Amino acid sequence: MDVNLVVGPSLFVYGFNDVELRRSGTMRPAQRMRRAVLERRFGRPDPDATRKRVEALLRRVLPSRGEVVLRSDEHPAYVQAIARLRDRTILHERTSSKAARTTRNPLFPVNLSDLLIRHSSANHKRETIAFSKRRQSALYRLAVWGCGATT
Predict the structure, then answer these.
(1) Is residue 141 in some structural domain?
(2) Residue pLDDT, tens place only, 67-94
(3) Which domain holds residue 145?
(4) What distances in angstroms separate CA 57 from CA 21, 82, 142, one per listed residue?
């Protein structure tokens, strides 16, 4: 699961959603077999899911016929999603995800939010055994975090 966040300069969380991703990275033969079994049983995650979910999130949080400056990293799905939002004027500024994550980075608000989510929720750490048993539970926890981050 991946999480998309729309965060303003004041750290206000405008919205978020999740994206189901396919297991990636180097896999041992047993892991590849396990992924094949799971994909036969539950289906393969949509390879275009990130673009679709980002588009849905932006439709929800950006006003139609409005103008907005949107800052993101260089993920190609963001460009594709923005191109489909023809009823909005979006100035899209892209920053490399390899740029130093300092206060001078244009993505500082979302980088800080990501850091705080990972710090405060064991199930959002990169390598953990504290995974959420249900995606919905992870999203509930994120919603509570988002409400608390703005007060």
Answers:
(1) yes
(2) 999 999 999 999 999 999 999 999 999 9
(3) 2-18+50-149
(4) 17, 11, 15
